[in-house]
Specification:
This protein is α/β, with parallel strands linked by helices. Helices cover 26% and strands 34% of the residues.
Length: 424
């Protein structure tokens, strides 16, 4: 196994603790725990050493790893046994460098603190081929391992497959993808490569309220039948004023249509819409965050009995017509770039045009107006307060409590990939 390489440039990471070899990690951590126990005996503090999981953070560089290390302070209520900060750098000479430390945060007061182990690993060059083995060696046995992939997912499918094989869940945050469309499609490809992977996305949690509000429209008995008649979906996402390709504002890319794409993929999958072979009328402006797809929608409840088929067996009748999904940017200065601004579903049933709309007011980010209109007449209108947008620590805390797979998110990612692949 690769270890410190004399040709590897010297790296200093003061916040990571003491530099050791991979072989000495466990011995050094045991020594640190003994020192911690001595502090308890002399009354300095009471350490609570409880841990139910490994938390592995894969970062593209040391700066990203340091930001993640600082963020862990907000996860003090999660019982982490060991944090592995793994920096994967293919550009440097081959080598593996490791540091160890103990971290502790107050549980009830400063006299009672939750403590866990932190191991920082920098894996470079050709040593990346052994990254999976190195990480597996340092994971505490008999405890689940949750991986958080910071930034865009890796293009190396073999590395992804090896890491997911030793993980119970892989977490990404598509809001921070630099190559938005490529990375979303890559997630779909990686799920195909690793069909047993439990994948989740912090950004998926950010649109939960919008998905619930859409579903609530069709919980109303009067409008339940309209769902199968929806033929047009419009989605708008916030961009900063005068946004141009590459424009940044407080660390947020503008435009950032990821949430709009996730919502479009969820609706496409839920409504069983499919792309048509003729895509000549579709439009795509990836730099501006605008898309238009023409799709075919299924007939919903319309069925027929197949001649000569067994009694009770029916066949769905082809297509009931066209459908469209439109995504476009919307300048809204008081809303975080990438946030959803508007969703409108339009249906035609019994010769009546009905629209279901969720829209932010131009001057606010904390509530939306939901409206149902039938032939231009407002049938329902209400203001709904939006919860404060959850930040990474809160979303991570939720993900670390989940043990199963999110099949709906996986279906959505495949639907998004299909939409994006069509334009290439």
């Amino acid at each position: 196994m690769a270890t410190d390489n004399p040709s590897t440039p010297e790296i200093s990471i003061p916040w990571a603790g003491k530099k050791v070899t991979v072989a000495d990690v466990e011995e050094e951590l045991a020594f640190l725990w003994h020192l911690s126990a001595d502090n308890v005996r002399i009354g300095q503090n009471m350490n609570v050493r409880t841990g139910v999981l490994n938390f592995v953070i894969c970062a593209p560089d040391i700066e990203a790893a340091q930001r993640a290390s600082a963020l862990i302070r907000e996860l003090s209520s999660t019982h982490i046994a060991r944090v592995l900060l793994v920096v994967l750098d293919a550009t440097a000479p081959s080598g593996i460098l490791t540091w160890v430390t103990l971290r502790s945060f107050p549980v009830i007061s400063d006299l009672m603190r939750h403590s866990f182990e932190q191991v920082t690993i920098v894996i470079t060059g050709a040593a990346l081929s052994a990254a999976g083995n190195t990480v597996q060696l340092l994971i505490k046995p008999d405890l689940p391992a949750y991986f958080w992939w910071v930034g865009d997912p890796p293009q190396d499918a073999a590395l992804w497959d090896r890491l997911q094989s030793i993980s119970d869940r892989i977490i990404v945050d598509s809001h921070h993808f630099l190559s938005t469309e490529r990375s979303l499609s890559l997630l779909s490809e990686l799920l195909h490569v690793s069909p047993d992977c439990a994948l989740s996305d912090l950004n998926w949690g950010r649109i939960t309220t919008w998905r619930n509000l859409i579903a609530q429209f069709f919980d109303i008995a009067e409008f339940k039948s309209h769902l199968s008649s929806v033929s047009q979906i419009e989605i708008e996402h916030a961009v900063a004023p005068l946004a141009e390709p590459g424009f940044t504002s407080e660390g947020d890319l503008s435009p950032n249509p990821v949430r709009a794409l996730l919502l479009a993929g969820w609706l496409k999958a839920s409504l069983s819409w499919r792309l048509t072979e003729n895509s000549v009328f579709n439009e795509h402006d990836s730099d501006g965050g605008a898309h238009l797809w023409h799709l075919a929608r299924s007939t919903g409840p319309l069925k027929m009995q197949t001649p000569g088929a067994q009694v009770g067996r029916t066949t769905r009748l082809g297509s009931s017509g066209e459908a469209t999904i439109v995504i476009r940017p919307r300048v809204q200065p008081h809303v975080r770039p990438g946030s959803l601004c508007l969703v409108r579903l339009s249906s035609m049933l019994e010769n009546k045009q009905t629209s279901f709309t969720i829209e932010r007011e131009d001057d606010t980010a904390d509530y939306v107006i939901t409206t149902i209109e039938v032939d231009g007449e407002t049938r329902l209108r209400r203001a709904v307060a939006l919860p404060v947008e959850h930040q990474e620590p809160e979303l991570l805390h939720t993900e670390l409590e989940i043990t199963g797979r999110d099949r709906l998110y996986e279906e959505t990612i495949h639907a998004v990939s299909e939409l994006l692949t069509e334009q290439t």
